[in-house]
Structure formats: C-alpha cells, structure tokens
Write a structure and sequence with these properties.
Elements: H1 4-7, E1 9-16, H2 22-41, E2 44-50, H3 55-61, H4 63-67, E3 71-74, E4 84-85, E5 88-89, H5 91-98, H6 101-108, E6 119-123, H7 126-132, E7 144-148, H8 152-166, H9 182-187, H10 200-215, E8 220-223, H11 231-240, E9 245-247, H12 257-275, E10 284-288, H13 294-309, E11 317-322, H14 323-334, H15 339-346, H16 348-354, E12 358-361, H17 372-378, E13 381-384, H18 388-397, E14 401-404, H19 410-421, E15 426-428, H20 430-435, H21 438-445, H22 450-457, H23 471-486
Parallel strand pairs: 1-2, 1-6, 2-3, 6-7, 7-8, 8-9, 10-11, 10-13, 11-12, 13-14, 14-15
Antiparallel strand pairs: 4-5
Length: 493
C-alpha cells in the first residue's frame, strides 16, 4: 500500500445505514468536513457513498461533488434494517430479517472496491467494519471509523427483549422452521440446516452477538454527545473496542454566532424568491416536520387545513411543511375517508399553492430550495419528532425545538427525555398532541422560554465536523497514522 501522505490522493468509503434519512444526512456533514480538511492538508479526496434505501437522496446531497468526479453513489444494502409500521418498530419481523445477516455479510464483504480504498467510515453499518478488518476475499485491511448515535447490537437486544416481555407466546416455542417461508430458505441453502430445529430467539441472540463482534472491529469510534447517545451506548463501545470510543463534543453544521443572523436574512430572502411570498426578518416562520405514524399524519393534515381556513387571521406568519411527509400523510388520510373529506383532500395541494401562510419545502437542492439546516436557521421554531439528526440540526442552528411524546418509540423517547433535561427542547404531552392543531404551534412560537432555550443551545459547540481539531481532523489524523503503519507492514488480515 502506498502511503497516502506521499500520494496526496485519498479515497474514502462512507456507509450510512439503511434506517431512514438521518444517517445519510449526518454523514453528509462529515463528508463536508472531510473535503474541507483534505483541502487544508493538500489532498485530492474522492468519496464513495454506499447505501441502498436512500441512494436517490444521497445523489441529491452529493450532486455538486459528483459532477466534478469527487463523489460516487453506490447502491448496496448494509443488511440491518428496522421493519416499521409507520415509525413503530415491528420487533418480530425485524428479528426475522436478522436471519439473513450471516450469509449476506459474507457476500457484502466480497468487494473489490476495498483494494482501492484508504479508509471506511461507517454510520451504523457493522458489516462495513467487518469488511474493512480483513474479513474479505482479498484479505485487505483498511482503517475503519464508526460515527454513530447508538449501537445496533445494544438497540436490537432492547427492542427484542421488550417485545418478548410484551408478547411471550409469540416467541417462547417458535423454531426457525416454524417461520413463514422457512422450508424454501433451507432448501435453497440460504439458512444453515442446523438452524432447522433450533429456537428462533436463540438464533437471533447469536446473530446479535455476531453484529456486536463486527462492531468491535472499528479502529476508532466517535459517538454523538450524551444528550443524543445515551451513556449505555458509550460504555458498550468502550467495552467492545477496548477503549477506542470517544465523544464528539458538539453537533455538526450550523454557523458561527457572528455569521448566523446574516445567514438567516439571506435564507429568508431566498425563501421569499423561491416561494413567491413576502418574507422578511419580521416574519415568524414555523417549520413542521414529522410523519409516518398515524398520530403525525393526522396532525399534519389537520394543521394544514386549519392554517388555510384561518389564514386571514395570521399576520406575517409562514408555516413550512416537508413536501414528502405531507404527500404521505394526505395519501393515508384518503384511505377510508368520506366522500366529502376526500373531495377536500383532493384539492389540498391547490389550496396550499394559493395560500399566503402555508408552503411545502423539499430536500431536493436541484429544485432550488435551501437545505434543511438553512431552513432551520431561517425559522423561529421547529416542531418535529426527536430524531437524532433533527435535534442536532436544531441545536446547531440555535432554533427552538418542540417535540411530541410518542409512546413506544424507545430510542427517540430516550433522546427526547435527555434533551428536555438539558433544556434543549420542550415537550408536548401525547394527549395534547392528539387533539392539537395550529393553536399548539402558535403557543410555542411565542413561548417565553424560547430565548432561554437558544442560550442553552449556544453552549453546545457546533461545526464539530470541520472546525480545527474537530471530527474531520481527528479522522484524517487516524487515517494518516494507520497508513504510515501499514506501509511498513503487510496490508493483510
């Protein structure tokens, strides 16, 4: 292996997991930091982003770099994926998918791209860490980094244990051979014959241990701050990697204090031009993000209809909704709707187009919209679910955040509780959210505690992916050190 310090060319593979948009968005911030750090060090950086479910989204994110040959998007599934009903995890079905992990992991690791790769960065893709460790047909060892807000082995255990406790009869005596389609899987040799008479839960527990073993292969682990990644995750990573885990001190993205107000005015001007509405520094903007669960789908439709019907009462107000989430919510609402309600829903997008207070925004940069952090910094309030990337974006942009309680959402509820304890968001009780409409958002956009929340957010360092001494700098230093070591020893596992 040539020392990358000598070649001045660096090729890094980044693998965000398949669980929604958040991981892809988070590694995009890391990629921006790496490009900036590579420029400072005089390197020619080329990235490969490997993800299947959000490949189209990633092509949009990296379009500028792809056009100049600096980024390539490869569609390849990293195997682990939560099966969900909306946003609620279906533990049994998720566990069944895990049965494919051993066979698919072996196939995943057969990747000639590793021969041309100087480092692998995983965000919740343990199989990528396995491939980089030398468990591939070429026995190629590549430095690997994990950047994440939890651990799959820990989270999967918790999800499945909770379901076993809630539905013991569904698990107690079930054998692998009892599962739907099992005979075909055995016949095709997709599952080992020795699983046939074994308890389903015992095999799943073994596979989760296999995933944990893959996690242990990371050369370095950078875990999100404690309000986003609970201490049990940090302890887990420290244990399995024998002390290679460290906390990221703050959040990704955002702007320095001196630049933020200027950026806010600039983005508001772009919003005004793009949406054809009068938007200035005095306009109050609420960004509403959510969807994918019955409670959120109902809220989005109810909220939009109220905003449209009451728009004559709103002075200098703008409500922004995610186009993708609203379209999904409207389609759900149409199912089983009465003829009258369906007629209203059929016209909802025409009504939005004529409205002076409601607009839909997209994550497609090629359509000329600001990206989501720009929308956050332009907004007075974000009303959303407490997903890791949503919370970190609000904090980075110093924008007050309000989230609803959602029972049964184990990981997001953990984040919500931790962030509320730190004063980084406010909570709307589940019962209030069920019946709420535009009045709820109006109450919070004028809330007296918003100023205090911004002050607390300002104590959390932002731009941690690219500032001097930040994540990109630490990743680059680790790659340089590993490269120097491997030029003096065989690059094989």
């Amino acid at each position: 292996m040539q020392n990358v310090q000598d070649s001045k060319t660096l090729r890094i593979k980044i693998v965000p997991n398949e669980d929604g948009f958040g991981p892809s968005m988070a590694v995009y911030y890391v990629a921006r930091g790496l490009f900036a750090e590579a420029g400072r060090r005089g390197f020619d950086l080329h990235l490969t982003i490997q993800n299947e479910r959000k490949a189209a989204f990633n092509r949009t994110l990296y379009s500028d770099w792809s056009q100049i040959g600096r980024a390539e998007i490869r569609s390849k599934h990293s195997i682990i994926e939560l099966v969900k009903d909306g946003e609620k995890v279906r533990a049994r079905e998720t566990a069944e998918l895990l049965l494919d992990y051993p066979a698919r992991a072996a196939s995943y690791c057969d990747d000639e791209d590793l021969l041309r790769c100087d480092a692998v960065i995983s965000m919740g893709a343990p199989v990528a860490l396995r491939a980089a460790s030398g468990c591939n047909p070429y026995r190629t060892v590549v430095p690997s980094v994990e950047v994440f807000d939890h651990s799959w082995s820990v989270s999967l255990r918790k999800i499945i244990e909770a379901d076993i406790q809630a539905h013991p009869d569904d698990w107690r005596d079930t054998k692998v051979s009892d599962l739907a389609g099992a005979e075909a899987r055995f016949r095709k040799r997709e599952w080992p014959q020795e699983w046939r008479d074994r308890k389903f839960v015992d095999v799943v527990v073994e596979i989760i241990s296999e995933i944990e073993n893959d996690e242990s292969k990371a050369d370095a682990v950078f875990l999100f701050p404690d309000f986003l990644a609970a201490s049990e995750y940090y302890c887990h990573w420290q244990k399995v990697t024998t002390g290679k885990a460290r906390r990221i001190l703050g959040v990704f993205g955002g702007w320095a204090d001196a630049e933020r107000e200027k950026k806010r005015s600039e983005v508001r001007q772009r919003i005004s031009e793009r949406l054809g509405l009068a938007v200035d520094d005095q306009t109050k903007i609420a960004l509403i993000q959510g969807g994918g669960t019955p409670i959120w789908d109902n809220f989005l439709v109810r909220m939009i209809l109220e905003c449209i019907s009451l728009q004559s009462y709103f002075k200098n107000m703008l409500f922004l909704f995610s186009e993708r989430q609203v379209k999904g919510a409207v389609e759900v609402a149409k199912r089983g709707a009465t003829r009258t309600t369906k007629a209203v829903l059929e016209k909802i997008f025409d009504e939005i187009g004529r409205s002076t207070t409601v607009r839909l925004v997209t994550d497609d940069k090629q359509k000329g919209f600001p990206d989501f952090q720009e929308l956050y910094v332009a907004s007075n309030l974000v009303f959303s679910r407490p997903g890791g990337i949503t919370v970190q974006d609000a904090i980075a942009c110093r924008t007050p955040l309000v989230c609803a309680v959602e029972p049964g959402q184990w990981q997001t509820e953990k984040i919500r509780v931790n962030c509320e304890l730190h004063g980084l968001l406010r909570t709307v009780p589940y019962e209030a959210f069920q019946a709420a409409g535009v009045g709820l958002v109006l109450d919070h956009i004028e809330h007296a505690e918003n100023s205090r929340m911004r002050q607390i957010m300002c104590t959390v360092p932002n731009r941690q992916e690219q500032d001097d001494g930040g994540l990109a700098s630490m990743i680059m230093a680790m790659i340089m050190n590993k490269s120097a070591q491997q030029t003096t020893s065989p690059r094989q596992g």
